[in-house]
Design goal:
The complex is a heterodimer of chains A (about 260) and B (about 250). With about 260 residues, chain A is an all-alpha fold. Chain A has one domain. Chain A is about 85% helix and about 0% strand. Chain A contains 8 helices and no strands. Chain A is elongated and about 70 Å long. Chain B has 2 domains: about 160 residues, Rossmann fold, CATH 3.40.50; about 80 residues, no CATH class. Chain B has 10 helices and 10 strands. Chain B has a 6-stranded mixed sheet with strand order 6-7-8-3-9-10, with helices on both faces. In chain B, strands 2-1-4-5 form a 4-stranded antiparallel sheet, with helices on one face. Classes of the chains: A mainly alpha (about 260), B alpha/beta (about 250). At the A-B interface, helix 4 of A face helix 2 and helix 3 of B.
């Protein structure tokens, strides 16, 4: 038996990774083949947009307000002194919310909410032969099931991120209003000081890729589910875990490339 | 007509089909029977293209289906209706939407005409007025009937049915069998039914293929099945005391 001591992956693990990568790429290619009928696919895109966008709005609103408030309080705790202008709290909260908290934490939460739903929905369709039924009819099952989800994800997740940024900054404002460390006027002044459009661009690029990662990885896990209810649950778990890892990896790569 | 020529299918080291050649006749109920693990569902899935045979060919009216790619198969698949063992209705759609789904994708019919077609198919399976129900609101027998309604919505030339009686009571099973036989007659479809239900075999088995250990062991009709000397077939068909008693009376 060949042993690979002092290596991160064994040969089998590496082959398995390459196998999944290849199958994932082929599935993505199939997903974006020409639709049988555009109007039917468009209706699916609209349905998914409502599911991903409106369905996630509540949880995104709640976490964004709290994250913004906590970020403001912690920044104030660390930076407020006589030699540092108080407006810096608003500036740091703004930049960290736009660049990291809103896109990344929202994406991690959405991986749990949207990703697990996609993987379990497609996985259930697989084990109950609904995907077979689509194929028998001559429907390109990956195209019909996966492409509307990916399109909706890459449109709605950046939109949710914009909402998250706005609510995060509102959360910071509320935290300032509720405490005496930093005045709301200083906070707002800090928010507007030296704003660079690039940080918003980076945030939106991140959320676009996060949207693709969440929807495509979870759809892949669901599509190749085999077995029964137990395996559907496992596919959903795998989808969420791999999505989270890839989100953090993409976060690093995009930050390195764009900043 | 559908023809299978020397179909082999293996999953890794596990050989499931070992060279099945058969002709499935139009206007007939072609039954594929056999014990659990004999390869009957695998054969059905090879015929409809859900599994690719390891070796051999499937011919639809002279066209080699096995050698076609996904796009080339679409015209043939539009002529296929299939009822799955689990019915495979789309959970997120109503009964009506399930039935008109293939019409939405592959026809330019006005919506009113599609709804008329759905109503006709539902009436045909005795489920008139159930248009707005969701699959979760249906019983097992009703799901099967909706599955049949969806399968016939495109007026198929080929009807495939996988274990139509599984999980159904005997009375509902007979109703489903009768429905399948009537549709075969009405539409002159090439109907292929995978089953191990002996009521179906005796009731609608115009043409029966018996599989054993991945091989075609016997071929004939339900009239011939009671008088065969094939040991494995007799053990399968007359496994129960009830069937043995019925044979003795024949």
């Amino acid at each position: 038996m060949v042993t690979f001591k002092n290596r991160i992956f064994t040969r089998n693990q590496l082959l398995k990774m390459l196998y999944h990568l290849g199958r994932y790429i082929l599935l993505m290619r199939l997903s974006f083949k020409k639709p049988e009928k555009f109007s039917v696919y468009w209706a699916e895109v609209m349905r998914e947009m409502v599911s991903i966008g409106l369905g996630s709005l509540g949880i995104i609103a709640i976490i964004s307000v709290f994250i913004g408030a906590v970020a403001t309080i912690q920044t104030a705790f660390q930076l407020v002194s006589d030699i540092i202008p108080k407006t810096i709290v608003g500036t740091i909260t703004r930049d960290s919310t736009i660049l990291e908290f809103s896109p990344t934490i929202s994406a991690l939460v959405l991986a749990g909410r949207v990703g697990s739903s996609i993987a379990s929905q497609i996985g259930t369709m697989r084990v109950t032969e609904q995907i077979d039924a689509l194929e028998i009819m001559g429907v390109n099952a990956p195209g019909y099931l996966i492409s509307p989800k990916i399109i909706s994800g890459v449109i709605m997740i950046p939109m949710l991120t914009i909402i998250s940024i706005s609510l995060g900054l509102v959360g910071g404002y509320i935290a300032c209003a509720a405490s005496s460390e930093v005045s709301t006027a200083d906070y707002i002044s800090g928010l507007t000081d030296g704003f660079k459009v690039i940080i918003l661009q980076v945030s939106l690029v991140k959320s676009f890729f996060f949207g693709f990662i969440i929807t495509s990885i979870c759809a892949y896990q669901g599509f190749y589910t085999a077995g029964g209810a137990l395996e559907v649950g496992q596919a959903a778990t795998r989808g969420v875990v791999f999505s989270c890892i890839m989100i953090l990896f993409a976060d690093l790569v995009i930050s390195r490339l764009m900043l | 007509m559908i023809e299978t020529i020397n179909i082999h299918k293996a999953f890794g080291e596990n050989k499931v089909l070992n060279g099945i050649s058969a002709q499935l006749k139009p206007g007939y109920n072609n039954l594929i029977i056999g014990g659990s693990g004999s390869g009957k569902t695998t054969l059905l899935k090879c015929i409809v293209g859900l599994h690719e045979p390891t070796e051999g060919e499937v011919i639809y009216n002279g066209e080699n289906f096995t050698q076609m790619n996904f796009v080339e198969r679409v015209p043939i698949r539009k002529q296929i209706g299939m009822l799955f063992q689990s019915s495979a209705l789309f959970d997120s759609m109503t009964v009506q939407d399930n039935i008109i789904f293939p019409l939405n994708l592959f026809t330019e019919m006005p919506r009113a005409e599609k709804i008329d077609r759905a109503n006709f198919c539902l009436e045909r399976v005795n489920l008139a007025g159930k248009n707005k129900l969701y699959p979760s609101e249906l019983s097992g027998g009703m799901k099967k009937r909706v599955g049949i309604a969806r399968a016939i919505s495109m007026q198929p030339k080929y009807l495939f049915v996988d274990e139509p009686n599984s999980g159904l009571d005997p009375k509902t099973s007979i109703l489903i069998d009768e429905l399948i036989a009537e549709i075969t007659q009405e539409y002159q479809t090439t109907t292929v039914v995978v089953t191990h239900d002996m009521n179906s075999v005796m009731g609608i088995g115009d043409h029966i293929i018996f599989l054993n250990d991945g091989l075609k062991w016997w071929e004939g009709s339900n009239k011939e099945i009671a008088h065969t000397n094939n040991k494995e077939l007799n053990e399968f068909v007359f496994a129960s005391k009830f069937m043995q008693a019925a044979r003795d009376k024949l």
